[in-house]
Amino acid sequence: EIELVAVSKTKPLDMIAEAAKAGQKIFAENYVQELIPKVEARKDLEWHFIGRLQSNKVKQLVGYTSLIHSIDRSKLAAEVSGVAQR
To answer: What values do phi and psi take at 12, rounded to 5?
Structure first.
């Protein structure tokens, strides 16, 4: 099955709402500080993280996304797993 992930980087909530109304259900951001307010405003959508994830942002990010595309080292994967388990 193919699913389209719309990158909503720098896009305002009204544009995201328009895309969602047209049927888009999965959105992605690459900055934690942009992602969190959008997730809070649109909890009905599925959110992914596609940016480079820094260790100091893991605690902020975990719980807001259904998928993190950019885990690039085992130490970071272990940190995400630990935070998620807590």
So the answer is: -75, 160
Contact 38, 47 (CB under 8 A): yes
Residues 20, 25, 29, 33: is their CA dihedral positive or negative?
Answer: positive
**pTM summary value:** 0.90
**Tell me, what's the pLDDT at 41?**
97
Nearest to 34 by CA among 24, 44, 48, 21: 48
Grade residue 3 by pLDDT with cuts at 50, 70 and 90: very high
The pLDDT assigned to 19 comes to 98
Q: What is the 3-state secondary structure (H, E, C) of 39-60?
A: HHHCCCCEEEECCCCCHHHHHH
